[in-house]
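Quick illustration, no need to memorize.
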Amino acid sequence: MPVETWIIRGGKWVQSAGARLFRRSGVPAPWGNILTLVILNLSVQVAILVVDAQLPTGHILEYPNTRSPAEVYTVIECYEDKRLNCYKEGSKELYVWSKVVLDGLFPILYATLLSLLLAGAAGKASSNVSSPLAERLAALRKVMAFLPFAAMAADYLENTAIVIMLISSSQLLWVAQAQVIFTAFKWDIIIVCLVGLVILWIFNSRAKSGRVAGRSELSGG
């Protein structure tokens, strides 16, 4: 089945879940979808943190620590060499399971949530200004909505590299180097998305304050 079909079905499921969860509370549909995604993101993130707590302390590869390929395999050894103090029985299998199952879900969830938030914030910003800035913000909206999915793609490639290294019987330094690059790229894009979201939120808040102040002056006059 094409990836696009899965994305469309996933979007419809989120809309349906949001409608069921929040229709009685009076929450508008778009915010219901976002709140549903927030709940799903938090649920999967908590599960990931619970699993991470069972892994060798400080030996998790997907966090933004700059490592060389040799350093990556120093971390991998903690999942394989029983003589090391950092070794934990069953941690290798648990790590692989987490990468395949939990990290199979998490990237698409956070990417969809970030994309919705960024597209909504950029769209609102474009409605708060006049042309030609509005046209630029409208174009920026498309770029900002795409960026989280670039992070998602890097995340899946990172996870694939980690699983390959964990299950391979030999050292694959080129895979380790690829994992370092994918991890750095993923976090760089996520930071850009979060900074962009904060900037758009501040811009929209100031624009709204300006409109409120303008209406107060007109009514006072």
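The chain has one domain: 54-220.
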